[in-house]
Amino acid sequence: MTDVSLQTAYQDEPQFSDYFALLKPRVMTLVVFTAFVGLLAAPGGMHPFVAFCAILFIAIGGGASGALNMWWDADIDAVMRRTAKRPIPSGRVSGDEALAIGLALSAFSVVFLGLATNWVAAGLLAFTIFFYAVIYTMWLKRATPQNIVIGGAAGAFPPMIGWAAATGGVSIESVLMFALIFMWTPPHFWALALFMRSDYDDAGVPMLTVTHGRPATRRHILIYTVLLAALALAMGVTAVAGPVYLASALILNALFLKGAVAIWRRDEAMAEADNYLVERKFFKLSLLYLFAHFGAILADQALARFGLTWEVFL
User: Fold this and answer.
1) pTM for the complete prediction?
2) Which long-range CB contacts under 8 A does 188-191 form with residues at least 24 apart?
3) How many CB atoms lie within 10 A of CB 48?
4) FRET pair for 300, CA 20 to 30 Å: which of 7, 36, 176, 225?
5) Residue span of the structural domain in which 103 resides
6) DSSP H helices in the chain
């Protein structure tokens, strides 16, 4: 075999980065961060090594969900511009390999999270993987325009799992953290669907933009953003939040509402003329929105360790 043939054969072999891409590392970043905040905000304490193991296994479980999602969605991923370069549609990893990796990591993460912490957290992780891979990916995504509304629960579980890992249970605070992500997911993805234009049409995915049209999607973004803002501000008076969170929530939700109103007021002629710049800006803000809210919770927890709670400022 010539040097050129050897180089081509080597390039055709899947690399570690291809297998890692199956785990959706950018999504995993959000999973890890929100789970960490849920764990740290929980009452009591954990040994640092146990906490590290808990976050690691939650991250692996999130990655397993991503691999199973890519295995099932390989056909539509190949059609959509945003996903066509993923490992399976690009031919770098086979579907069978993705399925095996997803199942193996699912079992590994659930069992070892249970052994490291408790079986309530492990059960929540198992349900999250099942919900994302089966309920959302295999059923809701191709069946209903409410796919991202209901399916958003899968991405909302990590802080609840982190809380359960630390406490062995669920509380109103962890439910509210779950609800914050759950309500954030629809406007975040609908904004993406608006400026990605034909991707979901071409793939036959019944996203709201496809089934009800763009004007209806814009109205839904506004409605969910109003509900999200109310929920985010309400969480400011719970035990996990404090002055940093409340100040951040006031600013972030004012900006988010402003963006949602700007989207709602637009028409398709305006959208085509400026290449959906408003929707792109709103989508980018939505990424900062969630990280900033959970970052503020983290900051308030750090202040609380020095005795700087609401009582000091009242």
Assistant:
1) 0.89
2) 188/283, 188/286, 188/287, 188/290, 189/148, 189/152, 190/148, 190/217, 190/220, 190/221, 190/224, 191/221, 191/263, 191/279, 191/280, 191/282, 191/283, 191/286
3) 8
4) 225
5) 16-168
6) 3-12, 16-21, 25-41, 48-72, 74-79, 95-116, 119-130, 141-143, 147-151, 153-156, 158-167, 172-196, 199-203, 208-211, 214-234, 243-264, 268-273, 277-304, 310-313
Q: For residue 2, what is the DSSP state?
A: -
Lowest mean pLDDT among 27-31, 93-97, 219-223, 249-253: 27-31
Token pair belonging to 31: 């999973």
Q: How far apart are CA 182 and CA 221, in angstroms?
A: 14
DSSP annotation of 236: G
Task: Say if residue 178 is in the same domain as residue 244.
Answer: yes
Judge whether 10 lies within some domain: no
Instruction: Kindly state the average pLDDT of the residues 162-167.
Output: 97
Nearest to residue 162, comparing CAs of 295, 52, 291, 24?
52
Q: Is residue 180 part of a domain?
A: yes
Residue 88 CB burial class (10 angstroms; 0-12, 13-18, ≥19) = buried
- Six-digit token pair at 44? 């009591």
Look at the chain and report how many structural domains it folds into: 2
Contact 199, 210 (CB under 8 A): no
Residue 240 exposure: Cα atoms within 13 Å on the Cβ side = 28
Q: In the structure, what pLDDT confidence band is assigned to residue 148 with cuts at 50, 70 and 90? A: confident
